[in-house]
Amino acid sequence: MKKWFNILLVMVSMAIAGQSLAMTIQTAKGEVNIDQPLSNNVAVFELSALDTLSALGVYPKGTPEVVELDYLKPVFEAGTTVGTLFEPDLEKLNALQPEGIIIGGRMSPKYAEISKVAPVFDMTNTGTDIARAQTLLKEYGKLFGKEEQAAELSKKLDLALQQTQDIIKNQGKALMIMVNGNKVASFGVKSRFGYLFNDFGWEPADNNQSDARHGSPVSFEFIRDMDPDWIIVMDRNAAIGAKGESAKAVLDNALLKDIKAFKNNHIIYLDSSSYLASGGYQQMMRELKLLRDAVSQ
Length: 297
Hints:
single chain; alpha/beta; iron transport; Siderophore ABC transporter substrate-binding protein; ion transport; FatB
C-alpha cells in the first residue's frame, strides 16, 4: 500500500511541476502556450530578438545571415545560418529541429510556412514606444526561463531612460529624419522612431501623424522652414551597407547651413542598430547613451 502511495505522490508532484512550468507568451499574433521554457535550440530571424536574447545569456543555435552589427558578432559566430531576415532556408531549418522559431516584421509573411517546422513566436516591435520593448524583454524572460535576468535588465533600462529624459528635457524641438541616398524622410510620433518623442522626451518639430515604415518624404526647404533645435539622423545606406553618399554629405546643403541645428552643431547620427535591431535591449541602451552624450557635450 505504501509503495502505491509513494508512486501516486511522485505522479502528483510531476503533474504539479509540469503545470508550474506551463506558461502563456504574448506575441504580435496573440497568445502562444508553451509547456516549459525553451533551450537555446531555437531559430531566430529577428535582430532585436538576437540583441535582447544575447543580453539574457541566450545564444540561439539558428540565426539569419550575418548582419554587420559588431556587438552581435558573437551571436552569429555561435549559431548556424538558417536563412536571411526575410527568407528561411527550410532545409537547414528542418535539420536544426528547433523547439521554437522567433520572427519579427521582416519574416512575418512567412509565418504560416515556417510554423510547419516548429511553434512560431512573432515578436514584432513597432517602435512607437518603449513599453513594447519592455514587454518583449519580459516575454523573452518567460520564454527562456530567464525571468530574474529580464527583471534586472528592465530596471537598468528604466534607469537609463530616466537619466536620458532628465538630460533631454527643455532641449527644444527635434526633427527625426532618415537619409536614403539622396532621399530624405521625416518620422513623427506614430512612426518607428516615435519613441524618441513619446518616451525619450524630445518635442517633435514635425507633427505629422504618419506611421509609414519609411517615413514621410521631405525636402531641404521643409527642413529649413522647420528650423528645429536638433536634427536626429538615420543613415540608411550606412546601416544596410549600401553604396552611395553618406547622410552627412547629403545634408551638407546650402539651404540648411543657417538653421539652428546646424549652427549649434546639434546633429545626432544614430547607430546602425537603431535601424536594424530597433527595440532590442542593447540597442536601446546604446541609443540612450548616445543621445545623453550628444546633448551633454
